[in-house]
Amino acid sequence: MSEDPVAAVWMLWTLAGATWIGVPIYAAVLGRRFYATFSGVILTFALPSALILHSRLRDMTSAEWTSLLDFIFCYSMAVVGIQFTHLVRARMRSSYFRWLVSVPAQTFVAGGMLATPWLLFLLPVRLLLGYLEFFQWEVAQIGWTLLEALPLVVAGLSIITSMTARPETVRFRLSRNGPDEIQRVPVERFHGRPPEPLLERPLRIVQISDTHLGPWQSVPRLRSQIAGLVARDPDLVMLTGDFLTMESMGSPGCLEEAMQPLLPIADRCAAIFGNHDHEAPDHVRDAMAAIGIRLLIDDESCFDTPIGRVQVVGSDYINKDRREHLDELLTRFPRRPDHLRLLLLHDPLGFHSLPDDDVDLVLSGHTHGGQIGLVSLGLDWTVLSPSRWPDQGLFARGASRLYVHRGTGFYGFPLRVGVPAEHSVLEISPT
Asked: pLDDT confidence of 233, banded at 50, 70, 90?
């Protein structure tokens, strides 16, 4: 890479412009209008801040490191173009493509997306300090530029959070009463080796949610994770939707291959659709049918477990008239005598719309645990915490409980920041 600043900047801006303009046009020409709009919005939000940060970092980088900085930014911009072009006709790719293209491209885009609001937040302060001639000191200028580049560092470090999921045991007890309004309630979490058995045997459920097979969740990786959960001998396996991404939607059969470890215990499994599953419903139906998993689309199934009979009602994903939909579903499948009553509901926002005390436990996903937060530090706060959306963990309203799984993958924003994926067995003590 040339040390000529004009040549380096010209190359970076050329790559950015070709991607920024070329990908949406290419998608639109091929009739992918939604993706043309989606990619245009993402690139518009991510690329300008990346160009600004390159300029700032180059000004403070010594001559011997300038070429390396230029190479990193130009390579990253180039693979962003390749990745977004590949998504126009997406399919699952080899591990070489994922690690050389998809992972660095999505990390770079995530850094740009984080940097945009961060730079806007810091802009008034930078202008004020510049007016006060604060930046006449070289040390101050360097420190400020490093502060502005913090989102790129966060994005890089978040690869570790995004690619790892520790085995976990989650324990909680159901109850016949609780708060009038939805509240977060504590659970016991045990990482690594399973804890000592409880005196009274609990119901052991593995929940699999938001797998999003794609560049961050390969078929071998998901298959290995599921095999590890199956080895812990759950009583039930509940799959709460969003199994695919654009890549896996373009690769029929990959979900069935990833779900193979569930084949010996398929009679203990039930699944529902998430919102993204409606983009490729036949892929999901075919995979579940091939494994023998019961796909509950506004339907119910009953299971015999070591703690007794369990009724599982599965709700289809809808984004309108939730209250009417859930009222009708739960009326059509009323509580069965002497059964624990579970509801599979992809989007936990629907918990607000449930009839009071009609369900013992709701299992949801969808939120990816909030995806950005402080969960890795042992704190429950995420960017969704101030909203009505239950983000992750256990919530209560009256006699009903809601458990929101953090998911194993993600779709959209391409990194987990402080919110690890979940790889857990739920040990649930009945009332």
From this structure: very high
What is the residue type of 352? H
CB 78 within 8 A of CB 15: yes
DSSP 349: G
What does the radius of gyration of the chain's CA atoms come to, in whole angstroms? 24
Strand-pair category, 183-185 with 393-397: antiparallel
Residues of CATH 3.60.21.10 domain(s) within the chain? Answer: 164-429
Collapsing DSSP to helix, strand or coil, 241 comes out as coil
- The predicted pLDDT at position 60 comes to 79
Architecture of the domain defined by 164-429 = 4-Layer Sandwich (3.60)
Q: Which residues contact 138 (CB under 8 A, 6 or more apart)?
A: none
**Residue 346 DSSP SS3:** coil
Tell me whether residue 390 is exposed, middle or buried, using C-beta atoms within 10 angstroms of its C-beta: 0 to 12, 13 to 18, 19 or more.
buried
Tell me the CA distances in angstroms from 2 to 69, 71, 72, one per residue in order.
11, 9, 13
Which string of DSSP letters, residue by residue, matches 100-127? IIIHHHHHHHHHHHHHHHHHHHHHHHHH
pLDDT tens, 41-89? 999 999 999 999 998 888 877 778 888 999 999 999 999 999 999 999 9
Measured in whole angstroms, the distance separating CA 261 from the mean position of its chain's CA atoms is 22
What's the one-letter identity of residue 60? M
Q: Which pLDDT score, from 0 to 100, does residue 123 have?
A: 84
